[in-house]
């Protein structure tokens, strides 16, 4: 019997995956991300590239993309500690809802002008590219080589894990507006009901299933608590939650992220033992997804819309995303450099390409153009934003120094280490600093009051000419501080 019908496609797929991984390892040295390499490799293997493979199965790509995104969100949720909610939950929720809406509207307006689209089609394109991508954010923050401060890292990670439902809702809403017969009067009602259903059922099923599975995990016999089998248990139960929520009419993306977060925080060491296996599942999902999405696009088809697509990407990166971030983070007293960094790391990845398949399957006019522009936006984002995360982290001073970097540690935390319980007045008296009200307050409490927001390692406040920096935390309380006092020229003489 001839088994080449299995062997040949498997050989091609494995060779493509292997070459992409090797190329990604080499390109990582110069700052290019694995995800970008997978996407380009898929394009090169397609009909316009040396591979010459013809692939146009949008239904299969849509199915694989959704499953892959579910696994990636599950992995991200498992690794999200509830302690990060102290600094990142409120701003992330605003960015994941209002921020996506503002970004979509402004980008859609730019698309209308640059691509000569109707307002419905322009807003549909804005919705498609409106959310940051969990796969890109999780992967590139992990491989960027910088350790971000907790407030910035938590905001970016939670936002990327929770903003997909809003993008899906907006995409489906504008498709409905385009495809529903004029004058039917049901469009707005359907949109509002879909919004409540997506978020309500996604939250309810995700959190509820998380509690059930975490209890089951904690009651399993020890011999079944190994990393490999535990990873398989988590992946299969997470995909069951994802699909069940979708069948019920809720957001599977939100449900599986919340499911992973609940299980990860309640499952203890047994769940953590599966992180290695889950990391492998997530990377395999990203690789297959980006390769497949790259195969869908013919580079020659992108040429006709390349310039306006670059314009849409520029509007998104330099106007829509920064405006939305500044507006949403204004109530939370983020530093200006933190806001600029969060604005820049609005990475687009597989989600916009998967969402761009929706109009193709629904028969929306100009759907092919929308898909090509979404692909170009993702490509530009991965090239320009994805390759500069490390540089931007250092440029905007949101990166913490490595433990063995003594010079960097002194630059961030100062030359002296202070106990947070020390009275503030005693410090002022010892170093000749200006007297402060409430001098009897411990330094930790005085700094927390001055910050006016949850403290994180790396926060700074001024005390006269001195600078106090948060050096070590114990839960939500400041434990140790650093002190830096600038020397005047006369003191250096």
UniProtKB/TrEMBL annotation:
Gene3D superfamilies: 1.20.1530.20. InterPro entries: Cation/H_exchanger_TM, Na+/solute_symporter_sf, Transptr-assoc_dom. It is found in: Cell membrane. It comes from Caldimonas caldifontis. It comes from the Bacteria. GO terms for molecular function: antiporter activity. The lineage of its organism: Bacteria, Pseudomonadati, Pseudomonadota, Betaproteobacteria, Burkholderiales. GO terms for biological process: proton transmembrane transport. Signal peptide: none annotated. GO terms for cellular component: plasma membrane. Residues 409-487 form the Transporter-associated domain. Pfam families: CorC_HlyC (PF03471), Na_H_Exchanger (PF00999). It is a multi-pass membrane protein. This is Potassium/proton antiporter.
């Amino acid at each position: 019997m001839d088994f080449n019908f299995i062997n040949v496609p498997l050989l091609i797929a494995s060779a493509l995956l292997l070459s992409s991984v090797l190329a990604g390892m080499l390109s990582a040295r110069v700052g290019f991300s694995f995800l970008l390499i997978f996407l380009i490799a898929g394009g090169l293997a397609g009909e316009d590239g040396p591979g010459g493979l013809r692939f146009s199965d949008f239904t299969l790509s849509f199915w694989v993309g959704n499953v892959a995104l579910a696994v990636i969100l599950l992995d991200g949720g498992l690794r999200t500690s509830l302690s990060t909610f102290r600094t990142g939950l409120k701003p992330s929720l605003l960015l994941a809802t209002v921020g996506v809406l503002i970004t979509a509207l402004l980008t859609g307006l730019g698309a209308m002008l640059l691509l000569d689209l109707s307002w419905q089609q322009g807003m549909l394109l804005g919705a498609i590219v409106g959310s940051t991508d969990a796969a890109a954010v999780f992967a590139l923050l992990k491989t960027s080589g910088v350790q971000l401060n907790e407030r910035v890292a938590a905001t970016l990670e939670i936002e990327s894990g929770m903003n997909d439902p809003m993008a899906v809702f907006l995409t489906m809403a504008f498709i409905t507006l385009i495809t529903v017969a004029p004058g039917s009067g049901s469009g707005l009602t359907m949109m509002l009901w879909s919004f409540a259903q997506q978020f309500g059922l996604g939250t309810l099923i995700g959190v509820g299933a998380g509690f059930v599975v975490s209890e089951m995990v904690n009651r399993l016999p020890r011999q079944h608590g190994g990393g490999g089998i535990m990873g398989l248990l988590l992946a299969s139960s997470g995909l069951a939650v994802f699909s069940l929520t979708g069948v019920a009419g809720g957001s599977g993306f939100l449900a599986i992220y919340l499911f992973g977060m609940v299980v990860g925080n309640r499952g203890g060491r047994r769940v953590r033992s599966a992180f290695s296996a889950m990391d492998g599942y997530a990377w395999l999902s990203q690789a297959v997804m980006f390769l497949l999405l790259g195969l869908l696009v013919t580079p020659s088809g992108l040429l006709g819309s390349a310039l306006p697509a670059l314009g849409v990407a520029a509007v998104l990166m330099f106007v829509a995303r920064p405006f939305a971030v500044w507006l949403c983070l204004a109530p939370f007293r983020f530093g200006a450099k933190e806001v600029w960094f969060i604005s820049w790391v609005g990475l687009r990845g597989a989600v916009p390409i998967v969402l761009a398949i929706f109009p193709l399957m629904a028969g929306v006019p100009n759907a092919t153009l929308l898909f090509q522009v979404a692909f170009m936006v993702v490509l530009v984002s991965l090239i320009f934003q994805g390759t500069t995360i490390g540089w931007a982290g250092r440029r905007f001073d949101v990166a913490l120094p490595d433990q063995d970097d003594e010079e960097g540690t002194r630059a961030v935390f100062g030359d002296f280490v202070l106990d947070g319980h020390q009275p503030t007045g005693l410090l002022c008296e010892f170093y000749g600093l200006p007297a402060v009200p409430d001098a009897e307050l411990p330094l930790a409490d005085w700094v927390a009051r001055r910050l006016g927001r949850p403290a994180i390692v790396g926060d700074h406040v001024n005390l006269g000419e001195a600078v106090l920096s948060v050096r070590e935390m114990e839960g939500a309380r400041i434990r140790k501080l650093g002190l830096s006092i600038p020397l005047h020229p006369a003191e250096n003489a």
